[in-house]
Specification:
Layout: E1 6-8, H1 27-40, E2 44-47, E3 49-50, E4 56-57, H2 60-73, E5 77-80, H3 90-95, E6 103-107, E7 111-113, E8 116-118, H4 122-135, E9 138-143, H5 148-159, E10 168-173, H6 183-192, E11 198-203, H7 208-217, E12 221-224, E13 231-233, E14 236-237, H8 241-254, H9 262-269
Parallel strand pairs: 1-2, 1-12, 2-5, 5-6, 6-9, 9-10, 10-11, 11-12
Antiparallel strand pairs: 3-4, 7-8, 13-14
Helix pairs in contact: 1-2, 1-8
The structure holds (5S)-5-amino-3-OXO-hexanoic acid (KMH) and zinc ion.
The site of (5S)-5-amino-3-OXO-hexanoic acid has 12 residues, from strand 6.
């Protein structure tokens, strides 16, 4: 059986640097984290950036500098978030592709997000998908709820295959307002995916471990990181992103599906070697 694709999502848009001092928010912190996570077994980095006040931003120059620095310092596949923060405009979220990443997230529908709403109406999803095709940026289809799979099918039916030719999804489970992070839901979501699609899964908060173990058992791939959980174990905060990657990589090795290296992951996802 193939290896395990491990994505690290080190920062996100929600955690507060003042409350979580180990969260990587500066470019230096991000690149250092990325190097450690690559050494630990990650092949993809899902990137949200922060401004000088450690607040989430989609500033175009900063995004471009971030892509360049991650390429300079690592071999990781650079996947920029087009989800941003719940307050970001659709125009700014589309403009993320101007930074020229290898890949981007593409969420397939609107979802309640705690007390907020993460808005992804069809016209935006469709525009973003067409832009990824025009720019040759490989999308990862983020699914926060099973109903969002219908939108993925609609995208493929109306606009054809994604850049790279391969459909890869990420089940984002356990968001308050989205699908729960448990094994029956993994099975139901995977059964609904398009034929030939591959998938990873991440569990938010306390669903991290059940989702990680369930995904490995079901033949899926893994996303981990401080965007998704700030606890390593009950009462024990995450000290650095790499320890989450190390744990995922060890479990993948135990499952006889060792971590894919970045070059293998590029072939798997249909991503060219964009920066050599
Ligand atoms: N920060 C969330 C509102 C993505 O990166 O594409 C959206 C999110 C999804 O994190
Ligand atoms: Zn994200």
């Amino acid at each position: 059986m193939a290896g395990t694709l491990i994505t690290v999502a080190p920062t996100g848009a929600e955690a507060d640097k003042a409350a979580v001092p180990t969260l990587p928010v500066t470019l230096d912190e991000l690149v250092t984290t990325a190097k450690e996570c690559q050494a630990a077994g990650a092949a993809v980095i899902h990137v949200h950036i922060r401004d000088d006040a450690a607040q989430p931003t989609l500033d175009r120059a900063r995004l471009a500098d971030t892509v360049a620095a991650l390429r300079e310092g690592t071999d990781l596949i650079v996947q920029l978030s087009t989800g941003g923060a719940v307050t970001d405009s659709f125009a700014n979220r589309l403009a993320v592709l101007d930074a020229g990443p290898d890949a981007c997230s593409l969420t397939c529908g609107t979802v309640n997000f705690g007390d907020e709403v993460f808005a992804n109406p069809w016209p935006f999803v469709k525009d973003l998908y067409r832009l990824t095709q025009e720019r040759g940026v490989v999308p990862e289809f983020e699914l926060f709820d099973i109903g969002q799979v219908a939108t993925l099918h609609r995208l493929l039916a109306e606009f054809g295959p994604p850049a790279g030719g391969h459909v890869h999804c990420d089940l984002v489970m356990g968001v308050p307002g989205g699908m729960p992070g448990d094994v029956p839901t993994i099975a139901a979501a995977v059964a609904a995916l398009p034929a030939g699609a591959t998938w990873s899964a991440t569990g938010i908060g306390r669903s991290t471990l059940p989702v990680l173990l369930g995904a490995l058992a079901a033949g899926g791939h893994l996303r981990v990181g401080m965007e998704d959980t700030l606890s390593y174990a009950r009462g024990r905060p995450v000290s650095r992103n790499a320890e989450l990657v190390e744990r995922a990589a060890e479990l993948a090795r135990i499952a006889q599906r060792p971590p894919m290296r970045p070059a293998q992951a590029r072939a798997f996802l249909g991503i060219g070697d964009a920066h050599s």
